[in-house]
Amino acid sequence: MDIMKWVFRGCAALTIVAISVIGFFIIFNGLSFFTHTSLWSFLTGQYWLPSGEIFGIFPMLVSSFFATLGSVTIGILIGVSTAIVLVELLPAKLASILSKMIDLLAGIPSVIYGFFGLMVIVPLIKNNLGGSGLSLLAVIIILTFMILPTIIRMTEVSLKAVPREYKEGAYALGATRLQYIFKVQLRSAKSGIIAGIMLAIGRALGETMAVMLVAGNAVIIPENILSAVRTVTANIAMEMSYASGVHEQALFATGLVLFAIIIGINILMQWIVRRLDRG
Amino acid sequence: MKRKFLSTLALLMSSSVLLIGCSSNDTSTPATENAGATSTPSNTVDSASSDSDSAETDAPTSDTTGNGVSGKVSIAGSTTVASPMEAIQEAFKEVEPNITLEIQAVGSSAGIKAAADGTAEIGMASREVKDSERAEYGLNEIVIAKDAIAVVVHPDNPITDLTIDQVKDLFEGTIKNWSEIGGADQDVIVICREDGSGTRSAFEEIIGLEMDINGVTVSSVSPMAIIQEGTGAVKATTAAQEGGIGFVSLGYIDNTISAVTISGVAPTVEDTLSGAYPISRPLLLVTQDDLSAQAQALVDYILGSDGQAVLESHNYVPVG
User: Fold this and answer.
1) Which A-chain residues 134-163 have CB contacts (< 8 A) with chain B?
2) What is the fold of B148-280?
3) What string of pLDDT tens digits covers the 279 residues of chain A?
4) What is the pLDDT of residue B69?
5) Percent of chain B's residues with pLDDT above 90
6) A218 and B223: CB-CB below 8 Å?
């Protein structure tokens, strides 16, 4: 028994080690960059020109923000609706089939999403809306597909967790089915749904491979939804293999900024969920 | 109590991980050198006579066919150079069956760095070694071939000839529509490699895609340009965009894209060799001073007539 205790402790420690080594690695490599460019001009700089050692990631932050905002907004609308249909409206058998298909969607590797986007979504945009098709819109569509399973699954679980008594009580008071769903069930499930949304934001923000394939990767502040964009993550993945010197440090610093944003979102998520649970 | 235990454990393990990381780096270099040293005796004279200085200026004529050298040569660097090196690897296997090559395509900068710190014995670069790198690492540079960079457009594009100035204007975004230079009424979509790419920096230098901002020279490629990672992606994107224009190594050209002539000269091996085709760059191997016997045999083979023939058959311009 004692041995197992140590094994468990060891496993727990391993996680901590992994997190701290990764964190240490990024911070160590990223921080030294800020002797070259100040944090402020790094975050607000409009130009990313590694050939002249000019590093500004503002256009990428904006692109990442819009890509995440767009996909999460659409994802919430479609995802929450789907979860409601799954839990409350569809017959159980059909719902379980659909549910399994959604699980399948979650298991598809991101590069496959990217390939699908490049081969299907991008030509579709190019032929119908003009431009090159490699655009913010393509990124938003692909990211929406990718975060849907997370939102649906989390919403589904929390909707199911609403006590049966609530439903009986609502119906006893004369509520219709839709009134019950929107006024009782969704409200009592909100902390779980929001946790799902936060996870989806993290996924959308962190997704790299699929985004890189369809984004066009031009470092500009998107003028419209058909502009080519480069996200923060794509920037790192795209240039890391060839970067050296200050350029490499700048990419680590980009990673550091991303790391900070993700940590911020996690803390925000925990805070919101705790608040909602209490209230 | 528990927390204290965990944190000490975490510290211990993280430090040990770091230590392991360091020590394995240190040991890898001498290990390969030792492997080279033990198998050298039959070849010491040969490797001493043709050191990398002479290799840089001219190809040595001696064919080192099957002189019993064996071992491993680790090669890392440019993706562009990796593809002819793989062709070399095939042919070299026939000549020296006991030498195995390990080729890793990681990019020019990484390749130069790998050769400098000993992670790889030979680095590959598809651009000139920068002055800063030359000063920092002091590596030997061996030009194994030249590579023409072709300006490519979609096969349906009626434009088949451009001048250097037009290429510059197209890539800078001054020419926005193909009709401005006599083509179809179609927006120009510039497709470019990512920053740090050897192909890109060579292309920018030759075309003059450079400008000054606050006293530093930066790339003047239009910020609206689609950036793709890797020559293959540039080729695929150009093939998919009717208004697209990009640049790829000569070896990548096939019927999905069409290469334009530059002031009437097509990108071919002959015209690059004669200097008539203007856009070309050297493909380099970089090494430290002391090459192992097997690495020296490889370099000699590449610079010899057989190796150069292999390169030429893959659309690279021979130097020997």
Assistant:
1) 134
2) D-Maltodextrin-Binding Protein; domain 2 (3.40.190)
3) 688 889 999 999 999 999 899 989 888 888 889 988 899 999 999 989 887 888 999 999 999 999 999 999 999 999 999 999 999 888 989 999 999 999 898 889 999 999 999 999 999 999 999 888 899 999 999 999 999 999 999 999 999 999 999 999 999 999 998 899 999 999 999 888 998 999 999 999 999 999 999 999 999 999 999 999 999 999 999 888 777 778 889 999 999 999 999 999 889 888 888 887 776
4) 77
5) 30
6) yes
Closest of B129, B148, B171 to residue B317, by C-alpha: B148
Query: Which tens digits make up the pLDDT trace of B288-317?
Result: 888 888 899 999 999 998 889 988 888 888
- DSSP H stretches of helix in B96-218: 108-117, 131-137, 164-172, 198-207
Query: In chain A, what are the domains?
Result: 58-241 (1.10.3720.10)
Going from the C-alpha of A183 to that of each of A83, A165, A187, A279, the distances in angstroms are 16, 15, 6, 16
Distance in angstroms (rounded) separating the CA atoms of residues A99 and A95: 6
Give B-chain residues touching A9 at CB under 8 angstroms: 5-6, 9
> Smallest CA–CA separation between A9 and chain B, in Å?
8
CATH 3.40.190.10 residue ranges of chain B are: 71-147+281-318, 148-280
Q: Test A218 with B226 for CB contact under 8 angstroms.
A: yes
pLDDT at A4: 87
CA dist., res. B238 & res. B240, Å (int):
5
Name the CA dihedral angle for B234, B235, B240, B245, rounded to a multiple of 10 degrees.
70
Say yes or no for a CB contact (<8 Å) between B196 and A239: yes
Span B73-83, mean pLDDT?
88
Rounded CA-CA distance B319/A215 in Å is: 40
pLDDT in tens, B255-282: 999 999 999 999 988 888 888 999 988 8
**Contact pairs from chain A to chain B, CB under 8 Å:** 110
- Our CA-based measurement puts residue A104 at a distance from the nearest CA of chain B, in whole angstroms, of 29
CATH topology (fold) of B71-147+281-318: D-Maltodextrin-Binding Protein; domain 2 (3.40.190)
Identity (one letter) of the amino acid at B51?
D
* Minimal C-alpha gap between A21 and chain B (Å): 6
Nearest-angstrom CA–CA distance, A81 and A194: 14
A243 touches chain B (CB under 8 A): yes
Q: Is B112 within 8 Å of A244 when comparing Cβ atoms?
A: yes
Task: Tell me, yes or no, if B14 comes closer than 8 A to chain A by beta carbon.
Answer: yes
User: Residues with Cβ < 8 Å from B105, sequence gap 6 or more?
Assistant: B76, B77, B78, B79, B82
Answer whether B187 touches A (CB < 8 Å).
yes
Contact between B228 and A49 using a beta-carbon 8 Å cutoff: no
ipTM higher than 0.90? no
Which residue, among B119, B226, B242, would best test binding to A if mutated, counting the most A CBs under 10 Å from its CB?
Answer: B226
Residues 68 through 127 of chain A touching chain B, CB cutoff 8 Å: 122-123, 126
What pTM value is reported for the model? 0.77
Interface of A with B in 245-274 (CB under 8 A): 245, 247
